């Protein structure tokens, strides 16, 4: 079942320059993507290709210049504050930099508790916090709950963020380069955790990266983006083993082969 | 079996106690950061002494500060530690009783103006671009209004009507003319924090703007708020001194400003009555000095790069100790 889709989405950033001048950046140009339930979809592309812009559009941090957003078949493009708030309980986002996405003044428990409170969770909140922390393999929860972000490693922080995002049981998780700021040794762990969560929770995941290797590791389908446009899409294995677009080939060739040394 | 259960419960209790103790310790050490910084420590001690003088000064002053009870122009002696004024008042009693009102006006202006600037600044920094720039315009208008001039105008106007500025109108005027500087700082700070991922994250998980402002933004800029409070308090003390010095306040009130006014009006500096003019001047300077020290100290505590420097220093001294 198609859960979330964009129809001809474009995003143009305009910045005023001096009195009359204006600079326009076309960040997205007529993008069509869709994600089905329980699917992991990859978005690959070089820096500046518009991946983050697309991710932010999907959670209403930006408004599209033109095009439509569809959620469960309904046009949600014109959603306003209250509807957006409700929608965001279904679609959550994980940020790239776990050193910036957690509030340095609050501890782990706070970060996981707040979404439960704002969404009006009816069960025992502290139990749920423990449960979610266990889920992202931060155990024992008691050990982590009173820790502040600066007392945690990058991998642990990203797990805390996953717990925060997943606490309200969203249907879709958008992960914008969730491991690119992490140490190489913990990247695989986090990616495996994300795959495991997909299996256990039955959620859909949009995985954004510029690293072709990790895309083939975790995703079912992939969209290749280049300067604001989707240039190729299909099953991940097909696209990686048989790229049709010149840009995709370049991207694959440019990626370091992890097996080369062995 | 049963023993085991008891052990378990015991362990659980122990671990919760352990966590509590650890929390308490971490709280203490974090407040110790303030005490480990020498400037902050000196400022705090100085400030607390002023505060205690301010609270009990009126009660422990040996004589009625306003009574014309003694011989005029007497130099310091055992019965008059700081001598007497040209009107035969006891300077030491005036100094003690004057601390309270001086501090009260200064701190009230600090508190009131900072409250206004937090509200306006954070709101401006966290609202839409258009609202933000409108508020910024208002802030800039208040920034260019010269507070002292407004006070002089109002004061002379009231003098013309045979009235003087009491403490409360004074606090009000000083706050109205003193909030804009802080509001500008808070606005720019809020603007930069509002773009950070952890604020976007809170928007995404459905926090209300009010909650973000109070739980996250105000907390992030707390050191700047404290620093702004002390600066505005300095402005308050200076404002009071200036108003009294100009003679547009109520000159029968006893505070360090009126003390300066009377001593200067009687040309104490020409007639050699140093015990009349020096004490209030020194006290005012020391009070401002304590605010500034606290400010520097808090700056260093809240600025991680400076803190790193101090830990390097400590490590170095530890190494030195080892070598010795
Ligand atoms: N808020 C903004 N204002 C103006 N231009 C923007 C803004 N956000 C993004 N852009 C521009 O849009 C284009 C796409 O940026 P985006 O961040 O989406 O790329 P990306 O694919 O996520 O790159 P990266 O891999 O570096 O994260 C870039 O040219 C960027 O400069
Ligand atoms: Mg990006």
Secondary structure layout:
The complex is a heterodimer of chains A (262) and B (324).
Chain A: E1 2-17, E2 21-31, E3 34-36, E4 40-45, H1 51-58, E5 66-71, E6 74-75, H2 81-88, E7 91-94, H3 108-118, H4 125-135, H5 141-145, H6 154-166, E8 172-176, H7 184-201, E9 204-209, H8 212-218, E10 221-226, E11 229-235, H9 236-241, H10 246-254
Parallel strand pairs in A: 4-9, 4-10, 7-8, 8-9
Antiparallel strand pairs in A: 1-2, 1-3, 1-5, 5-6, 10-11
Chain B: H1 2-36, H2 38-60, H3 91-125, H4 129-144, H5 147-160, H6 167-178, H7 180-194, H8 197-204, H9 209-220, H10 222-246, H11 256-265, H12 268-271, H13 274-302, H14 304-323
Helix pairs in contact in B: 2-3, 2-13, 3-4, 3-6, 3-7, 3-10, 4-7, 5-6, 5-10, 6-10, 10-11, 10-13, 11-13
Instruction: Please state the overall shape of chain A, judged from the principal axes of the Cα atoms.
Output: globular
Strand order of the largest sheet of chain A: 7-8-9-4-10-11
- CATH class bucket of chain A: Alpha Beta
Q: List the total number of helices of chain A.
A: 10
The whole-number mean of residue pLDDT values of chain A reads: 90
Largest β sheet strand count, sense and barrel closure of chain B? none
N-to-C order of helices and strands of chain B: HHHHHHHHHHHHHH
Order of helices and strands of chain A: EEEEHEEHEHHHHEHEHEEHH
| N- to C-terminal distance of chain A | 41 Å
Strand content of chain A: 25-35%
Mean of the pLDDT scores of chain B?
81
What CATH calls the topology of chain B is MetI-like fold
The CATH superfamily of chain B bears the name MetI-like
The secondary-structure class of chain B comes to mainly alpha
CATH-defined topology of chain A: Rossmann fold
